[in-house]
Amino acid sequence: SSGINAEYGGQRRHLGCWRDKPRRAIGGGIRFRGSIAKCEQYARRHRYRVFAIQYGGECFTASNAHQTYRKYGRAGNCKNGKGGGWAQNVYTVGGTGGRGAPKGRRMGRWSSIPGRLTRISRGRAGTWGVNKHGHIFRLINNGRSWRRISGNLVHISVGSQVWGVNRGQYIYKYLGGNRWKRMPGRLVNLDVSDNGHVWGVNRGGNIYRWTGRNWQHIGGRARQVTVGPSGVWVVNRHHNIYYRRGTYGDRNTAGSGWTHVPGKLKWISSGRGVVVGVNSGNNIYYRKGLSAGRPHGSGWAHVPGKLMMIEIWEGQVVGTNPGHAIFKSPVTGVRTPRTTRPSRPSGARRHLGCW
User: Fold this and answer.
1) Phi and psi at residue 270, to the nearest 5°
2) Rounded to an integer, what distance in angstroms lies between the CA atom of residue 100 and that of residue 248?
3) Phi and psi (nearest 5°) for 249?
4) What would the pLDDT profile of 263-320 be if each residue is shown by its tens digit?
5) Given 3-state DSSP classes, what are the helix, strand and coil percentages for the chain, each rounded to the nearest 5?
6) What span, in angstroms and rounded, lies between the C-alpha atoms of 277 and 270?
């Protein structure tokens, strides 16, 4: 299998062998004796994030197990993944954010999309990607097959428009009908929002914003940039994370300085009320507590799975893993824009415009 589960440790992840004592590291006592799978099922049913197996089959799990299992430090006497005497093998629960996750936010129920890509992007203009040969593809409406688009790119971004950069760092904008327009400047990374705002980074780490006519230089250094409903965020070559003040809500502005956000990521994506990213170990995280009043959020929450890059658009995240396999997951708790249905015509006369 080429999935996240088989190749890269799975949605259930082993967190190591940890000591226990009579005052248990994981509260609630022994739930029952059984298999790893049965204990995981129990934890998932109760929406817990972590469970443990001790002494050959004793199942331990609790709502705060992910915070307490390391209480007594590591142990070295676990056997066959089922713990030992006062030692327990600890695992994450696959396929759920768990009760310990922030209320209302869930992701990590991964399913595969056929194909192999090094970059994937999703926005109002659809889902697009490029493979290791630079070939460009667009996901067709059935969501299971790709249509080849002319051109050659190493990076692509989708919002209200589709932009990309090629191996020569030249910038292109898609015009439709397999036609691309070369844009001014040279970049190695860029991002496009659903409002048509474009930010980019060049080989020297300089940050730029497209004004509609030219590139406006923005102070600071970055390796990757994202622009979206939660504003503009960047990560630099040291994997430090920064939020651009004044950009929350995908506003048409250059912002007014950078706020350092704790944590380390190599890739980041700005969605509606949530920011997602992956670190150097390909572990997946999302930023919790985002709002207009607190646009940089309050902390990071871990998501099961492994990806080398990730993007979020409305209620779905997409990404590729180190083997270039493609995955998607729904994100619950993300408010999507409400579509207002036009009212039915009434008997009254209505002006429909000048045509």
Assistant:
1) -95, 115
2) 27
3) 95, 10
4) 999 999 999 999 999 999 999 999 989 999 999 999 999 988 899 999 999 889 999 9
5) 5, 45, 50
6) 9
The torsion angle over the Cα atoms of residues 211, 317, 146 and 2, rounded to 10 degrees, is: 140
116 vs 324: CA distance, rounded Å: 5
Return the pLDDT at 307: 94
CB–CB of 234/296 below 8 Å?
no
Predicted confidence at residue 354, as pLDDT, reads 61
Q: How far apart are CA 323 and CA 292, in angstroms?
A: 37
Q: Which of 83, 101, 112, 88 is nearest to 44 (CA)?
A: 101
Whether pTM > 0.85 for this model: the answer is no
Give the pLDDT mean for 142-167.
95
What is the rounded CA–CA span in Å between residue 290 and residue 335? 12
β-bridge partners, 278: 267, 284
Phi-psi region of 333 (alpha: psi -120 to 50; beta: other; left: phi over 0): left
For residue 213, what are its two tokens? 């006519």
Average pLDDT, the chain: 87
Instruction: Answer yes or no: are the C-beta atoms of 221 and 206 closer than 8 Å.
Output: yes
DSSP state, residue 308:
S
